[in-house]
Amino acid sequence: MRKLIFAVVGLLMAMGCAGQNKTKTDKDMNAIVIFFSHAGDNYSVGDIKVGNTKIVADYISELTGADQFEIKTSKYDGMAYMPLTELAQEEQRNGELPPYEGKAPDLSKYDKVFIGGPVWWGTYPQVMFTLFKDINLDGKIVIPFTTHEGSGLASCVRDVKKAFPKATVKGEFSIYGHDVRTGKAKVEKWIKGL
Hints:
Elements: H1 2-21, E1 31-35, E2 40-42, E3 46-48, H2 52-64, E4 67-70, H3 81-94, E5 112-118, H4 126-132, E6 141-148, H5 156-163, E7 168-169, E8 173-176, H6 184-193
Parallel strand pairs: 1-4, 1-5, 5-6, 6-7, 6-8
Antiparallel strand pairs: 2-3
Helix pairs in contact: 2-6
């Protein structure tokens, strides 16, 4: 009887492990999500503790098994929405490249790179372009995504292609910031279509 119980428990554990592997396929294990997300005062959703793009990045990682690299800067911390938009516009106008925290990720083991951020004045926030100068995506599949409140992808796809001319840029996606908290199904549909 004891042997039978151990055999059943072992079988159940093996089945559980096999079931876990089905959601994270081998083809997705070499993916990374690089993103910038702004918590705090945001248009349409108010003061949020987790930024809209971070939520989408988490969905992507959950659905594909992709690693993450979050572009972080304290420059925008605690800023109200209107002063932040004015600063973002000034940075863009002046071609400023604000520093990010830490070091750029080692991307040598990745074939797929998701790149996401909010749309600020028609493109990604300038801090993302700072990182773009520090990474090489030659030969990689690059998949841009955005969170927005009416801008869609804006010029983000064009700007990614310009920053990484030797990458294959495809499969882009955008979602309204106010939809992300209930939008996992939209993200899943997009991921399945890639």
